[in-house]
């Protein structure tokens, strides 16, 4: 009885957050999508050709940035995640080659967890007690050989506006401290300082914190905590209809978690309750240096069927 | 002696092709880069901000295309390549969750060969008797735990013009037959028909053949052969300075190989001798249907350190 | 309420089966070991030096049998399990070798699920609603990077008596049909026919069914069902104190399951409730042909830390 | 020319060692088996039922030893080898279970190199310039998806006599120093001290060095070098017809290599030239403490098709 009561109060809480009614096990549920019962892409729906066209006009110099960092066995990894690559020369033992043209070749195999390095979190990544985005239950779709719904392969072409918020400059530091939470006040403050008038539907909001300067120097600190989005800030960005959010940190949200916050609750607010993708470990220093506040952002995650996350390398042009 | 003689004539042949002098084991060698001894990216060097800016002007409707197909255990795979994904719920056996907010999560691991599905071939993929692009010897850089040079992580942001050649319409068919080779005459013929004035330095040239209509219907035929670029066509495109070439086929080049051609010799001409990346298994039908002949092409392959190939999903906007 | 009631009746049922009292979450629980709260090896405890010595006397001809079948990508596999091996020649691209003695070498990597081919099921393999052998909860020990208790590495040296029951001859057939359940009557009947006086503490009981004649001929039938131990037979063998049981089938227990039986309930009875290991996919035809009814059985599963199962190849000598 | 000359002198040298005639590329060759052109198991052929029967008589107390150490991500590993295990609960996200009996289960997957922890080296592991045991060329059988000859699956049941030589006591130390080579004098000296009359055909010779006391304390030293068999000692044991040799070290042979020895030349002498398997990382301290000089040794490596090595856990009984 106690458990049932707690579950109900929890669901009521999330209902309040999401502004939707609860009817357990039937739609609408706590994580219902505003884009209909078959929706698997959430706010990426807001990226229309008109918005893509408008964003393309932000290209004024032709300078292109790759936001991906490298993924390898030394990249700081969460929990027990590991990564390996194997390169072989199939059929070429002893210096064999193929054909009169003596072609030789290498092939590579990956054996590793996807959540290492620059990554996008799909909607199958985080849920609330097994309830994932758009009323999908993990027990129904989270199979061992790949997600049967909400897989990363569903994400359409992403080409939209990116807004970069330089939180380091906002806080007057080189590197924002762990635990510092970005909420509405900080977001609007940074926007004002940078002269950004509005965050709009379909935008990608990127937070520069300077945190990546720890990479290779203090990997333990880098992965254990970071500054990042707070709960109220997440709900604020959700209210604006952003398509995705990202940062130059491993965990994206503020850690240690805000006073009263649950574990990775911002992940739940974004992924499960609002259909907003999260981008982690993005290299943003060059954009920050160039004051590339508004730019044209493109992303095509490799379409691994049933993938939870994806290694990414967004291309931003301004 | 016989072998040595054959090797020498072979190298002389490639020298003739590449127009460079040979001095075995020292630079310049048969596969020397015109961008200097440290170059690892070949013709991607041609993608300058000016060209990126010009290409961005091709965006006129805001329609975006994702060119990636899905990669999974059923995707047609070359040789003995295999692919697997594993999804787990770490720490959540028996329905456990974390925190008062009861967060649950899935993670995914890949165990598979990269050369399955939409992919980019890095310069470490194909060589001539262990000699790879820019005078790099496989024995020096092709280590079992990842390439020590020419790895996929070196590729910079790609944002440039794509030219799509509809070879199916050119040949007056729905699907071009296997073995049909695209050489200078066919390339120029298709360009003329489509009103494309020139292929330029830094361009991506994409061939639509209709071949992907076989996917899921006759996978065996799909992977065994295909129409594609011929040797003379490869040298012609190299002379124009293209950054990369791609197609909606698994092998990219014409198979069965042209009369007198070696095994995957077009791969050698492009990757090893000219520093031109190859994109395979691209989904191009929608672009062809829309007559998206010239468009803005962006690609950021995930930066797996030491990778030979990469799963890709280029985003094209027009 | 309904669920709670059902759970309670279920636990009471298992209590009756196991003859132990239930006190949820505290010992003793439904799966308590008779060998104490720290026990992780169950009835293997019965294999004492005295029993090993006695069993060694069964060697009279010196003929040795390997009971393992091969494991590879074509071995019939349960559910979504897959298997792969990769062989590489590290550091030997282009025909390189090491030292003046020109040593060359191959190395191999496995990427595969352990439950394929001849295998031993550890006590972490099957539980009752997340309750595993000796009152261990899956949520406590079943971590994604390996079991923290009940791992396969805990199994001590196994050297004891094996009793082979030829169920094919008992049923007067070459291959016993799927679903046929071996219970006390069948076990005692086969023993009597073969002149085996008793099954004793620490014994390994092996069932020959002829089922492996399907291998490579009808793999689908082989993996989908088989004859095997029934629930009453499992409890009977448990009452005798056997250390492990095995068969020449993939699922070991009778499938389709007996009337009224749950899913893989015999696995629960053996592994979770009685601490008896299960050996699957054993090649027993040669032993059956030789009428090797009683023999000296040795097994040392590779000690992968935290392993759930292990690929095995028991050596039996008579 | 120079290379050819060196190759020839090298082959002549090995010919002298092996006492066989050379006719390049045709049998007999430098690595020909004395058991015929189809032989894949070398001196394991010497393990006859008569020898197995005789060895079984060495069991006098029934005490059984498992010689395997644990393999996991922390086990000292050679070169770039890595190891991982993944445990999942297929179909059980959110606390789901199966059937009215609520069965839950764990499955495990290995992603790792086999040459970590206790292992047997198959004959496909080490060769002389791509020439492996019994005139097999690597380019012919060493395919990327598994060896097509000399795979570990070919090894028959091993049940024979083990002779343990306590080299630590022989040298009057707790742990023999790295680089100390065991040759005929040391082998015979240790035998004499222990009262072992003869090493015979089909025997397994095990060397205890005390080296494993470094495990977990100085893993770097443990893997980098060790005392072990020397070249002359290897040829001596080969002349006696031993089936396999083993030690409580990672590299088995003396490292730093003996004066004038090539890299891992003892591996070549044993595996390639004489068909003698090598067992590495065996836990022998308990046997040494018990003075278990002669015992009954059984080993059934899991039969992974095309495997180069195998994780092992031999069971020794005395």
What report would you give on this structure?
Four copies of one chain form a homotetramer. The first copy, chain A, has nine helices and 19 strands. Chain A is α/β, with parallel strands linked by helices and 318 residues long. In chain A, the strands form five sheets. A nine-stranded mixed sheet of chain A has the order 1-19-17-11-13-15-16-5-18. In chain A, a hairpin with a 3-residue loop joins strand 7 and strand 8. In chain A, helix 5 packs across helix 7 and helix 7 runs parallel beside helix 8. The longest helix of chain A is centred in the N-terminal third of the chain and has 17 residues. Chain A is globular, with a radius of gyration of 21 Å. The N terminus of chain A is likely disordered. At the C-D interface, helix 2, strand 1, strand 2, strand 3 and strand 4 of C face helix 2, strand 1, strand 2, strand 3 and strand 4 of D.
Brief synopsis:
The structure is a homotetramer of 318-residue chains. Chain A is α/β, with parallel strands linked by helices and 318 residues long.
Query: Over the alpha carbons, how many angstroms does the gyration radius of chain A reach?
Result: 21 Å
Give start-end ranges of low-pLDDT stretches of chain A. 1-25
Fraction of helical residues of chain A: 10-25%
Lateral strand order in the biggest sheet of chain A: 1-19-17-11-13-15-16-5-18
The SSE string of chain A, one letter per element, is HHEEEEEEEEHEEEHEHEHEHEHEHEEE
- The coarse silhouette of chain A is globular
Oligomer: homotetramer
Query: Based on helices, strands and strand pairing, what is the structural class of chain A?
Result: alpha/beta
Binned strand content of chain A: 15-25%
User: Biggest interface pair, residues each?
Assistant: C-D, 105 and 105 residues
Mean pLDDT figure of chain A:
93
> How many strands of chain A?
19
| End-to-end distance of chain A | 57 Å
Number of helices of chain A: 9
Major sheet of chain A, described briefly?
9 strands, mixed
